[in-house]
């Protein structure tokens, strides 16, 4: 065996903002783990937590939490997953099964869950180790590069919409037509909602319509709240990419018992008058990705309804360039690294 075949190519963060190409030795999966031969990995804004060092992490670290690959080694005590099976790994590295949250069935909030690409190496690599409890099964008809963005951007928006109290025919607004939003609009349309897309600038209107939105609001031109009220008020607003001000505005555009779900992390605080919440019993909540069962459902639903992310692919070696392009807001709308 040549030394080259004992190692694999990876792109790792070595200092804040610095990604470099490297070769790492293959490792065997431990108990409860599998090893993947990675085929594709999406580049997500949350990768900045690793690359910019926003989380306390140990350098070097391989980012990437929208990874799809084939299982090429199975550790001990792993049931239900087989060699050669194509699987995905999202942001949540896998639940422990024994903490209080897990025992309640709240796998997303497992207290011993690691974040993929933050606490352990992720998918900007030809190989990675993953906890079996966090694996997602990939439907046969879905290409690996198409499946990748659905493991985070897709799961996060699908889970929020699916678990929200809105029902078919209700007015549901999506703020931000980017990596998450362009999927949320498609999911909302296929779930039977009356979909309002809210973006910045008139140019996104045609795209929103193509994605399935019934209405488009240009937030640079009109206020979000009055525009939503003119449509009768929103039952639900999903804020995918906005600061605190847009969330606060959205609350004023809700009908009674309406809800805003914040998905986009923003340093900007949300300032809401308590009266806007009290009168009408309106609420704001946050949602973090989704559990493995919902991830399976996201992929199945996407395949059934022909929902897909708009992607451009780049080879793994160009990961630093892909990351920079995504951070500059130039991705339309997801970049996927292919191995």
Summary keywords:
11 helices; Quinone Oxidoreductase, Chain A, domain 1; Rossmann fold; 6-stranded parallel beta sheet; oxidoreductase; 7-stranded mixed beta sheet; GroES-like_sf; ADH-like_N; alpha/beta; globular; 25% helix; zinc; 27% strand; 339 residues
Question: What does this entry show, briefly?
Answer:
InterPro entries: ADH-like_C, ADH-like_N, ADH_Zn_CS, ER, GroES-like_sf, NAD(P)-bd_dom_sf. The protein is α/β, with parallel strands linked by helices and 339 residues long.
What's the topology here?
Elements: E1 7-15, E2 18-25, E3 33-43, H1 48-51, E4 67-74, E5 86-89, H2 100-104, E6 127-131, E7 135-137, H3 144-147, H4 153-163, E8 171-175, H5 181-190, E9 194-199, H6 204-211, E10 215-218, H7 224-230, E11 234-239, H8 244-252, E12 254-262, H9 274-278, E13 283-286, H10 292-305, E14 311-315, H11 319-327, E15 334-338
Parallel strand pairs: 8-9, 8-11, 9-10, 11-12, 12-13, 14-15
Antiparallel strand pairs: 1-2, 3-4, 3-6, 3-15, 4-5, 5-7
Helix pairs in contact: 4-5, 4-10, 7-8
CATH class category name of the largest domain: Alpha Beta
- Could you tell me the number of beta strands? 15
Based on secondary structure, the structural category is: alpha/beta
What is the count of structural domains?
2
Uncertain segments of ≥5 residues (pLDDT<50)?
none
Mean pLDDT metric: 96
Give the distance, in angstroms, between the N- and C-terminal Cα atoms: 21 Å
The Cα radius of gyration reads 20 Å
How many strands, which pairing sense, and closed or not: the largest β-sheet? 7 strands, mixed
Q: Could you name the CATH homologous superfamily of the largest domain?
A: Medium-chain alcohol dehydrogenases, catalytic domain
- State which percent range the strand residues make up: 25-35%
CATH topology of the largest domain: Quinone Oxidoreductase, Chain A, domain 1
CATH architecture of the largest domain: Alpha-Beta Complex
Principal-axes shape call = globular
Tally of DSSP helical segments: 11
Estimate the helix proportion, in percent.
25-40%
Order of helices and strands: EEEHEEHEEHHEHEHEHEHEHEHEHE
Family: Belongs to the zinc-containing alcohol dehydrogenase family.
Domain Enoyl reductase (ER): 17-337
Cofactor: Zn(2+)
InterPro entries: ADH-like_C, ADH-like_N, ADH_Zn_CS, ER, GroES-like_sf, NAD(P)-bd_dom_sf
